[in-house]
Design a protein that fits this description.
The chain is mostly beta strands. It is built from no helices and eleven strands. The chain has strands spanning 5-7, 10-12, 18-23, 31-37, 44-49, 55-57, 66-71, 76-81, 90-97, 107-108, 112-116. Strands 2, 4, 5, 6, 9, 10 and 11 form a seven-stranded mixed β-sheet that branches. It starts with a strand and ends with a strand.
Amino acid sequence: QLQLVESGGGLVQPGGSLRLSCTASGLNYYAIGWFRQAPGKEREGVLCIGTSGGSTNYADSVRGRFTISRDNAKNTVYLQMNSLKPEDTAVYYCAAHPFCAPRRMNYWGKGTLVTVSA
């Protein structure tokens, strides 16, 4: 059982940056995706990184602003979020699957809240 734990959320002003972390023992053997769910909206995929480090972008709205990376020595995947906008406000979740497949993720974290507001 993979237990994913997200951290790094918080309140940030528009234009600011945050880095989210997703950590779990054994995480290195899985592709990790970041998803988000804004109030009143469906959950959407953001980015996913495979075990070899290749990434897939699921949301055009974050292209050029968000990046995903992994540090296998730390069993951690990061979501670097720059130039944040109020519409990025959401609960952000990480999820795991043997490969990047947003509708087939096996394991989910509990989420971390990101609020972008002045």
